[in-house]
Design a protein that fits this description.
Shape of chain A: elongated
Distance between the termini of chain A: 10 Å
Largest interface: A-B, 27 and 27 residues
Structural class of chain A: alpha/beta
Oligomer: homotetramer
Helix content of chain A: 25-40%
CATH topology of the largest domain in chain A: Rossmann fold
Number of domains of chain A: 2
Radius of gyration of chain A: 22 Å
CATH architecture of the largest domain in chain A: 3-Layer(aba) Sandwich
Number of helices of chain A: 11
Strand content of chain A: 15-25%
Largest sheet of chain A: 6 strands, parallel
Number of strands of chain A: 12
CATH superfamily of the largest domain in chain A: NAD(P)-binding Rossmann-like Domain
């Protein structure tokens, strides 16, 4: 994989456009396909999918790479994109960087055995994306909360990737931060980093917090807990679907709850594109080692 | 002024409502007038202006206190509020906390010589409001900028109250911060606090910054400087009107410029209300000393 | 273990004295034994080892608990302390909190099967101790380095407990921090937290750093690497013995290298005592659950 | 002053040596005089005072520049240095950067009217030196206090240059910081930066603080206040002589008080040397403008 000069970027949203721009400014050639809708906006330099596959040294697919109908996830394309047998034959000859590899191969079994790397499945990708996610969460909090984050009392449930970065950001902004976790070593880290620690297991009352961020992908905020949550509390759920909040119950109980999903792509596509690039290059480096 | 038990709060927006709520939870009695529009929203406990003047120990007017037509600045009132001669007679007997005292007295000369305290003219009020202003600016940046503030390169022009707090916040979020100022001692503080210093006088090129925040109330970003500003730069003008950016030129040159004014009231009315309260009590304490 | 009112604290250094003081101010009774040397300093309230064992509800031994000669590690005791068969018989009836449990039981097999809890073997204990360790390392750096940590360029090798806390502290003080690690997810965290990441595997030159902190318990700084280390660099080795630096080679090559061990006990015995207390109570809570 | 290529550096301590080294690595020629004691340590390249005056384009004197006996402040010189009439005649022809200009001119009236710039009297010099001063104070605290600064409760009296930087540093290290000041706008800044504010005027009891740093050059900690200071409190006086603490009373009352003076030169001569250089160049730039 040592000599990639040209990347074919097929499908995706703004993140892939920023990725393309960043690769360009690094000196790579880019063949961009699946962004036909941008043509009307005076966007030039768009190629066919075929050309992107044929004339590139490596191909980057979006996040996720394919939809349920097997079409490439290309919201900015003029029409649906499906890979032909001929295209797949060529793709088998070169590295393909994709997200949700299994789904891609289920859709296109011809790619089985090919060099398909799942950049989105990697731990480093997830960690790096915790930054735009946490910042997106802060943006939601700043928009929805009627006070300042500075001087607020916040609760973050979960001390995984997002919890770690989000707690740091909130404290840096001057919030008094409490973090819920389950393990003694997490409690120790939480305190050593200057937050208050709370045991998720004993979370039966959410009192005295201005803003609560849930990062745990489990129904933490069920009807029972929501009944014991201050009405004035702003609740932001960052957990991937089905999420950690019973929104129906929240609505009934008058708790102001917000679902905030896919924040990197929505709030910071430029950084999200950079993260894809960085991860792709980490893969290349590891393979070449 | 030692024995204030009841505050009359007349006119204003959400800030005054949060102020009222905060005073209430401190144990004070509140007589609220000039919020008639809220009645339809089920808001109770609203009084007449007359009652708020008559039965209170001190009166708090909004920010600013009166409009050009001499009416109280009361956007949530059902109708315009003008003080009558009788009301003014009573107001002369008790402390009145107002913003833009001069304008108030020009509108109501009967208050001349009365105990009218301008809370908004105080330095501490302005410093405290730098926090919601800076946070509002960060919110605008997070919303408008397509990357994360973390890892961004930002420029803050001006090292007054807002510049000081904003630079701290941006750095805390992981931005690489440069601050423009004019005095050697400011350069020294800027470096001692971990930012890069730049001389405003020699600012002829704005290159390599993702986001620029102007806090200087002078036309810094005129057409000439905007011509030497990266097109990709997001420009946020926090300076009070007429502001520090030639928006017309920015539009022509394709520079993405945003005016962000009155941020405390818009982004964080709760904190803004708390700051009014804190300043009013500082005044009371000083007078009683 | 639910009803502990009196702790017997036997042996140890200042850490155990601060532990005793802290437990006292929490309302516990303390029986202190093995501090006879303090008697000359006017220290009262010292008991015999026998009393401490007999009249307590739980016993806390120091860190480490016993020496190679089976005596209790009691540098402040007037004479060596060995547990008698009778004492051991009583100790078997109550919880004993010790450090290096295996060594203790090897020395006193009668304690096998008893409720001996090793507080020092726990992950949370190690994490909490990373704070006084990192702060001790900063103190050494401040003392030995002729510039300020603010504005310095520092390298931390290893991103375990100490590396995590130390990097945070150095950055908070205004240093430009690089962290060496080996895993892609660690690189991602390092960057997401605002440090520069470097691969330990490719560390063949240590150039441009004012201070280097080694936390890796392996010979990273061997003669070869030391030959490629700037002479002006201050090197502080925090790794437990045999350590990560070839000190003999460093001396020959003129690299200013310092070994910094057992920092919590030396630099912050008060915090170290608090951490023992906190860990003992975590154990009690877990057992009682 | 536009064409300085060679600096004559006469007298001083390690700070001037680091200054010389830094100027050298910037490409300047350096003539070093008044460091004769270093010759035994193998230090070469030492000149006579006469040569340093004669062959340089500008002269830098130490901090302070002259002693009470009119000799140059040169603790590392082999013998006392006094400027001769001939030397002064040459010095009048070139810029001289000195500290405590008045004392220098009183000692050598021939320099009156010459281009003598007092770098140490400048505000930016003082601000920049607040960093090594504050860091030196933190070092003293870490060495003397038996707990960690992290988690400690600290009080800083005074919110001038040192108070500002020191409070920031302590908070960054995880201390809960209170700052004493006198002006409402200072209280506002103190709170807006995340510290607790206290009025110096009402400081009659110092209770609940682990470490107190005095930066106010007035006898704040007199016998009366010391009587109302917790015995366990560590007191560090940073105020220039006569200082802000009655040390005699402290000793009697058992309060652990430390005087910490001239910290930049003692704790961080390298940074102190850089600050002299930076200030000298700021002066040159201003003169040339």
């Amino acid at each position: 994989m040592s000599n990639i000069k040209t990347f074919g970027i097929i499908g995706g949203d703004k993140r892939q456009l920023f990725l393309a721009q960043s690769l360009l400014s690094d000196g790579y050639h880019i063949i961009l396909a699946g962004f036909g809708k941008l043509r009307e906006q005076g966007f030039d330099n768009l190629s066919s999918v075929e050309a992107a596959i044929l004339y590139s040294d490596a191909i980057i697919l979006p996040l996720p790479s394919v939809r349920a109908d097997k079409s490439v996830n290309a919201p900015l394309a003029a029409r649906s994109i499906f890979f032909s047998a001929g295209e797949l034959e060529v793709m088998r000859q070169k590295p393909v960087f994709a997200a949700m590899r299994d789904r891609l191969i289920r859709a296109y079994p011809a790619l089985d055995g090919a060099e398909v790397f799942d950049y989105a499945a990697r731990d480093d990708f997830a960690v790096l994306n915790a930054v735009p996610t946490a910042e997106g969460a802060v943006e939601v909090a700043m928009r929805e909360y009627e006070g300042t984050v500075f001087g607020s009392r916040t609760l973050v449930t979960g001390f995984g990737r997002i919890g770690k970065i989000l707690a740091k950001m909130l404290k840096a902004l001057g919030s008094d931060v409490t973090v819920c976790a389950r393990k003694p070593s997490d409690f120790a880290y939480i305190e050593a980093l200057g937050y208050h620690a709370k045991n998720t297991a004993s979370l039966s009352l959410v009192h005295g917090y201005d803003i609560v961020f849930n990062t745990v992908p489990a129904l933490i905020f069920d009807e029972t807990l929501l009944k014991n949550t201050d009405e004035a509390t702003l609740l932001i759920d960052l957990a991937s679907l089905p999420g950690g909040v019973d929104f129906e119950a929240a609505r009934k109980l008058g708790v102001d709850a917000h679902r905030a999903l896919s924040l990197p792509g929505k709030c910071a596509p430029k950084s999200a594109g950079e993260i894809i690039k960085k991860t792709v290059f980490s893969i290349i480096e590891e393979v070449n080692r």
